[in-house]
Amino acid sequence: MTPSLTALLCLGLRVGLRTHVQAGTLPKPTIWAEPGSVIPWGSSMTICCQGTLGAREFRLDKEGSSAPRDRQPPLEPRDKGKFSIPHMTPPDAGRYHCYYLSPTGWSERSDPLALVVTGVHSKPTLSALPSPVVTSGGNVTLHCGSRQGLDKFILTKEREPKSSCTLDAQRRPYGQTQALHPVGPMTPSHRWTFRCHGFNRDTPHVWSAPSDPLELLVRGVSGKPSLLTPQGPVVASGQSLTLQGHSDVGYDRFALTQEGGQALPQRPGRQPQAGLSQADFPLGPVTSTHGGRYRCYGGHNLSSEWSAPSDPLDVLVAGWFPDTPSLSVQPGPVVASGENVTLLCQSGSTKETFLLSKEGSARPPLRLRSKYRDGHFQAEFSMSPVTSAHNGTYRCYSSLSSYPYLLSQASAPLELVVSASHPEDYTVENLIRMGVAGLILLGLGILLFQAPHGHGGTQDAARS
């Protein structure tokens, strides 16, 4: 265990039997819980008490209660008693002791067993800052957060050796609380998965539901994969979203992370052809929480190390703000190649940023700070000079700097057509002129075609 984790207290499920027996006393019994001492609300569990052979009765006490909690006869070979709780509830949580009656009298009380009920409060969030993917030798800070104002957190490491620690919460605005805990330095041999629970200090055995698991990943230097989304970087609220990891390295698995958020489920890699690998990450219907910056990593089954990260992919969620900006173009939607074009995005609502996206493009939208002019917030996107590559359908969105990944409704689409010649060449007058010139050229072509044939016919007549 690394130095930063030595402060974690091991969360044992069994309190050991003390074999030292003082003169005239019976040894303490051993007490433990099955399937464990941390039980979800409504689940069944059993408290076990192990004494010496020949015990006549086992008793269970709960701290704070004057009467024994339960009495049970011993089970064969008469050295153990069991106390069942068919449906765990908050009143069942607390510290328990057991003791037993032998032919020579009552034993000492066992050491305490702390019985915890979970699921009484909503689950907290657990994330890693700055990311759940850490370079070898690096450190990371774990962040537990609650919207219910819980003032204590339990952070638990799930894989062996299991351990846990208690963290004091810090108050945040709007009744929220949080706790931070540093972990590291990380090495490729560490495959750590954490969860956190929250509780109030006056009810230390009544916990929230567990957070989603957070696995810390150690990245290496092998070839970075690429990350893309078939839907494009701007998705509508409620739309289905899938991110895809690709690599020309034959990775067996891929991991996806969201900056400032939790690590998302890993996916097995598949190989569409030799030497290539890919994985899909379906994220379901889009909500505001899907907006953010993502990276993916590749890994091999025989190694705990992950690849270098992919380039970041920003996912922007449109339709979060109710306003709909307008989009116009100067000098017009049909321009000649080489001209200067300006797309103007405007909104009557206070917005700090405007974004311009091109339909079908995988590139991130252009961003500009807004300017207030003539009663509107606006931004001018200049394209100088335009080429055929600028052909396409454009939309613009507005946003706030405090929510950079959440956008307004999309503007009406604007199609930009970039022609090879100047649009004035296609006026009616010019078309007529080109038509007349074409008829003249056609007539000359006919005369030139007939002239050789006519001359040849005269010569044939002369010969005859």
Care to describe what's here?
Strand 25 (253-258) and strand 26 (267-268) form a beta hairpin. The protein is elongated. Residues 1-24, 423-434 and 452-464 have low confidence and may be disordered. 8% of the residues lie in helices and 45% in strands. The protein is mostly beta strands and 464 residues long. The protein contains one helix and 40 strands. The strands form eight sheets. Strands 23, 25, 26, 28, 30, 32, 34, 35, 38, 39 and 40 form an eleven-stranded mixed beta sheet that branches. Residues 325-419 form the Ig-like domain. Residues 1-23 form the signal peptide. Residues 62-82 have a biased composition (Basic and acidic residues). Pfam families: Ig_2 (PF13895), Ig_3 (PF13927).
Low-confidence stretches: 1-24, 423-434, 452-464
Beta strand count: 40
Mean pLDDT: 83
Structural class: mainly beta
Report the total helices: 1
Rg calculated over all Cα atoms: 37 Å
Q: Which outline best applies?
A: elongated
Distance between the first and last residues' Cα: 117 Å
**Quaternary organization:** single chain
Largest sheet: 11 strands, mixed
* Helix share, percent: under 10%
The percent range for strand residues is over 45%
Membrane topology: Single-pass membrane protein
Organism: Balaenoptera acutorostrata (Common minke whale)
Keywords: Cell membrane, Disulfide bond, Glycoprotein, Immunoglobulin domain, Membrane, Repeat, Signal, Transmembrane, Transmembrane helix
Biased composition (Basic and acidic residues): 62-82
